[in-house]
Design a protein that fits this description.
Strand content: over 45%
Number of helices: 1
Largest sheet: 5 strands, antiparallel
Structural class: mainly beta
Radius of gyration: 18 Å
Oligomer: single chain
Order of helices and strands: EEEEEEEEEEEEEEEH
């Protein structure tokens, strides 16, 4: 990096790369892709190491059915959160999983549902995970539109990573549920 010249071209994904991050030792780079994988790379050689996440299912012809749209690495580099869009079955579902990086195995599937999750992050010294949802349309909550659809406002969900259980605000709603009140979102950001 001191020369500003390209060190290596990493080749291995066959679809768009959606996220990248270094492990704490800075010797491995992880890349998430719409091809349904999170690959890992040896930074010193540019060589691809065994994939950590492989969401492609042999019974489906196209791994795009489970695109990895976001990922984040824990501070200690031992765990990985992924957000994927699973289009197999009844329609688009957001899926959030917690992975053990060294084993390449799922620790918990934290969420699977029709809510359009847009981002994920570790929180509370890596003891929790949070996910944000942007306002969207769905047929199961909120205000009814002219087309008969109901609106889902912005919300933040939170999970305890030890148990994999969602932490709810009052026993049955998202950790932070802003509804369609945009001013509530900005108030929470300013705090």
């Amino acid at each position: 990096a001191s020369t500003g010249r390209e060190f290596a071209t990493l080749q291995g994904h066959n679809r768009k790369i959606t996220a990248a991050g270094f492990l704490p030792d800075s010797r491995r780079l992880l890349t998430a892709s719409h091809d349904g994988t999170v690959a890992q790379w040896d930074v010193t050689t540019g060589r691809q190491l065994p994939a950590i996440v492989k969401l492609a299912d042999a019974q489906y012809r196209d791994a795009y059915d489970v695109a990895v749209t976001a990922m984040t690495i824990s501070i200690d580099g031992r765990q990985l959160l992924t957000l994927s869009e699973d289009t197999r079955g009844t329609g688009l579902q957001s899926v959030i999983r917690l992975w053990d990086i060294e084993r390449g195995s799922v620790i918990h599937e934290l969420y699977r549902g029709a809510e359009g999750i847009t981002s994920i992050a570790f929180a509370g010294a890596d003891q929790a995970a949070i996910a944000a949802r942007a306002p969207s349309r769905a047929a199961d909550a909120g205000d009814v539109s002219d087309a008969g659809e109901k609106s889902l406002g912005s919300a933040v969900r939170k999970w305890d990573l030890t148990s994999g259980r969602e932490i709810l605000a009052d026993g049955n709603t998202a950790y932070l549920d802003f509804g369609d009140r945009q001013e509530a979102v900005w108030s929470a950001i300013e705090i």
